[in-house]
Structure to design on (99 residues):
């Protein structure tokens, strides 16, 4: 909650307004960034550095799609594909670990 408060303060400092709906639907991007960075969907494994690298990669893909003039829904589709692939990889990892 401390970081959420800090995010609210920085948003207010930048835009001079606070909107409680600002940043909605960013959860999917945050999960995808963590998964790209090596976190398991089942939990228990992941790092801050990996999540940061995943966030940078997500940002690069978003910028690349914008510069290429791709429709906005392609980005959401890309995030969805990443999460589906991550779920498949997580299932395989669990099977290997389980035996």
């Amino acid at each position: 909650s401390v970081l959420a408060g800090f995010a609210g303060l920085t948003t207010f400092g930048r835009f001079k307004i606070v909107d409680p709906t600002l940043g909605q639907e960013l959860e999917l991007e945050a999960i995808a960034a963590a998964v790209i960075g090596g976190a398991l969907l089942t939990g228990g494994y992941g790092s801050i550095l990996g999540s940061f690298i995943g966030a940078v990669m997500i940002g690069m893909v978003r910028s690349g799609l914008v510069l290429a003039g791709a429709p906005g829904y392609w980005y959401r589709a890309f995030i969805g594909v990443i999460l589906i692939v991550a779920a498949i990889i997580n299932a395989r990892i669990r099977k290997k670990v389980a035996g």
